[in-house]
Structure formats: structure tokens, C-alpha cells
Amino acid sequence: MASSLTKDSVQPGIPGSEKSFFGHPRGLATLFMTEMWERFSYYGMRALLPLYLVAPGGLHMNATTATAIYSVYLSLVYLLAMPGGWVADRILGPRKTVAVAGAVIMLGHLTLALPSAGTFFAGLGLVAIGSGLLKANISTMVGHLYNGPDDPRRDGGFTLFYVGINVGAFAAPLAIGTVGENVNWHLGFALAAVGMGLGLAQFLLGTRHLSPRSDVVPMPLSAPEKSSTLRKTGAWAAAAVIFYAIIGLTGVYTLNWLMVPITVAGLVIPVFVIARIKRDRSLNRAEQSRMTAYIWFFVAAAVFWMIYDQGGSTLSLFADSSAKNTVGGWGFPVSWYQSVNPVLIMAFAPVFAAIWLALNRRGKEPSTVVKFASGLMLVGVSFFVFLAPLGIADGGHKAAALWLVAIYFVQTMGELLLSPVGLSVTTKMAPAKYASQLMGVWFLAVTAGDATTGLLSIAGVDLNTTGIVALEATLAVVAGAAVWLYRGKVKQLMGDVR
């Protein structure tokens, strides 16, 4: 991909003005490759996670517990994107924060590679912390490459960046999944650490092409604020250590003592954060109005991700127990299903980008609200499709692999309508003082969706049942229709943002 750099004329002040990356600032190539390798490590480990949790050679848990752990882990990853944005805004700046994040993620995967159940959850925690530090900030740096919200290349740039995510996500299950399932689980986790190491090296070598804004701390902490932050952080950390030490010593500790607080936080914190930004009296009327509109996008995204992220847990565990997992008589590892979505993204993202550009030139491009509504309804349709293989399995038969491919296909079309557009509109609608933090808020929508799935699983709800799947599908379609019906009101609240 990096070899695609060509001579092109771009506007002054954009990093790498002598060259471009598919018509975009050269710094996009650095962020594209960094994110590609980071996603290789993340999605490779994620493809193995639910299978390792239920495998006799792994932790040998039941499917409901595995789904709960998987959902809580994803919820935590995205929950930590918010403090990750805060670290960049107040302490390190986006560029330094991403460098630290890469090192922490690599250490986490190396910890997962240790053949010990005791270190496994510590490794998950480190990967979650590092991912939280990286997520919001690398996307913010993509936004820094463009001349403000009205730069016509902006949406296309985020779509190309999204392709980078999916190049890594496509290769990861084929490499890491195969090694983990067929050779050794922990060797697969070690291969994920290698991927993150390559991503970190790529980032450090290419930082000179990034915008100078990416190295700026927008609102540095004052000395009193630093002291107060250290005291509060230390107090909360000490309280947590003491609380869990008491629970552990009394012998009443179970995983639910850890998972329930995280899932509740995943639902409560997003509401608290958005309310805090809305109450900020320093925001002008236009910024307040955009934040009101943003709530619609946030709720729509939360419902979307609640269903979408079950592709790596509910659908994966269904495939492990109730699908044929063969094509033309040739069998393949269950983790390979996780490559279906990214390969579809790579095939269709350029098509979507071209369609939006062509429609924009004619003044007919659908609004962001319409794209969101359509994506939400499509993810609901995907679970209506899921009812077919569930019915086949209930009849005592193995469902064909193509049923699962069809589900991933419908979800991918919905994702292309919602996710890259959501990243772009977040950078457009963010008040200047909350630039990185609002990107963290966007990822909190994933937290809210996954936290809901986690709470259901902790409560013992089997998500692989016809009734639950039909209920989730109906919820998404109805929510999408509601967003579409109120599209005029939301567009009015967005003001001049399109």
C-alpha cells in the first residue's frame, strides 16, 4: 500500500505536501500501516478468544460464560478509549499517547502467550488498556491531516483508513487463528505480539509525515491539576486493590465480581460523559446543538454494535458447535469466519467511497442520518437471516457455512454505512476543547452495546436462541426506522455539519 504514493498537488500546510496517498496527505499512509498492524494483533487475538475460553485445551468454560467474558473484554477496550483521549488532551498529546499504547499492547500479547491461566486475564487487561490509549487518538490524527470539517477528501480519507483496519483484520484470523487453533493457543497470542511490534515500528518511523497538531497537548494540566489527578487516581486504585483483596481472601470471589462492575460502568459512564459535555457552559449554542444531534448517532451506534460484535462471540460459538465449517468438502478453522467481514470491507469500501463521491457531485449523496438509519436496519436484517441456521440446528442438523457468510455480508453492508461515517462525523461535530475526548465518546457507543450483551450473558441468557435473536433483530430495525423518521430534526440540530 505504501508504494502507492504518487506526486500530487495538495493544499499548503498539509503534512507531506510533496506526495499523496491515493490523493490524500502522505501521513495517512503512516496511520494506515500502523493501524493495519495493530488490528492484525487485536483481531487475531479476538478470533481466538471465545474459542480458547470454551476449548478443552484452553480454559474449558461454557458458552454463556465465554460470551460474557468476550463481551466484557470488548466493552472494556472501548470504555478505556475515553480516558485514552483524556491522556492525549491533557498530558501527552495524540502522537506520544499512540506510541505508549503500542508498547503496552505488545506487552499484553506477550503476557497472553505465557502458558498460564493466571496471567491470561492480566494479558487481556494490558491489551485493553493499550487499545484504549490508541483508538481515539489515531483516528483523531487522521482528522488532523485535513483542512477542517469541510475538506471534501475527509470522508474518503476515513474510508481508506478503515480499509487499513480491515487489511490487518483479514490476515489475522488466517495467520494467528490457524496457529492458535491447529498448533498452540499461546503461540497464536505470541504471533499477535509480533504484529503489534511491527505496527509500533512503522509508527515511529513515519511520524515525520503527521500533522504538527498531532504532537500538541490541547489543554495541558496545570501543576495543581496534576497533583489532584495523581491523588484521586491513587485513591481509587488503592480502594480497588483493598476491595478485591478482601473478596479474594474471604473466598467469595468469582469472575462476576469483576465483570458486573465493568458492564454497569459501560452503560453508566457514556451517559455521564455526554451529560457532562452538554452541561459545559463554555460551549456556544451551535456546539450545544451539535452535541444534542450527536446523541442520536450515539444511541443508533450502540444498538448497532450490540448486534454486530456478536459476530465474534455468538456467531463464532454457533459455528464451533452447530455449523459444517466446510467448503466443497474442505474443512477450515472456525476462526477463519472472522476474515469474511474484513475481506468484504476491502472489496466494498472503495465502491461505497466512489458512490458517495459521485452522488456528492450531483448533490444527491444521502445525509449522515440516512446512512446511519440504513446501517442500523441492515444489522437487524442480518439477525433475521440468523434465524434460518438456528432453525436448522434446532432440527438436529449442521448449518451450512454459507449461512454464516450471508450474515456477515449483510452486517458488512450496514457497517460501511455507519462506522466510517460515524468516525468522520465525530471529528466534524466535536467541540474544539473535546477533540480527542469526543472520539472516545464515539467508542463508548461500542462499550454500551457490548456491555448490554455482557449483562445478558452474565444473567445466564443464551444468545443463541431463536427468541433472543428475533428480539434483537426487531429492536435494530425499529430503531433504524425511528432515526429515519426523525432525520429532519437531527439534521437541523447538526447545523452546518454535513
Automatic annotation (TrEMBL):
Localization per Swiss-Prot or TrEMBL: Cell membrane; Membrane
Pfam families to which the protein is assigned, alphabetical: PTR2
SUPFAM superfamilies: MFS general substrate transporter
Annotated Gene Ontology cellular component terms: plasma membrane
Keyword field: Cell membrane, Membrane, Transmembrane, Transmembrane helix, Transport
Record protein name field: Peptide transporter
One of the record's GO molecular function terms: dipeptide transmembrane transporter activity
Gene Ontology BP term (one): tripeptide transmembrane transport
UniProt family annotation: Belongs to the major facilitator superfamily. Proton-dependent oligopeptide transporter (POT/PTR) (TC 2.A.17) family.
Membrane topology annotation: Multi-pass membrane protein
The organism of origin for this protein: Streptomyces griseoaurantiacus M045
Main location: membrane
NCBIfam families: yjdL_sub1_fam (TIGR00924)
Residue spans crossing the bilayer: 43-61, 67-86, 98-114, 120-138, 159-179, 185-205, 234-253, 259-277, 289-308, 340-360, 372-393, 399-418, 439-461, 467-486
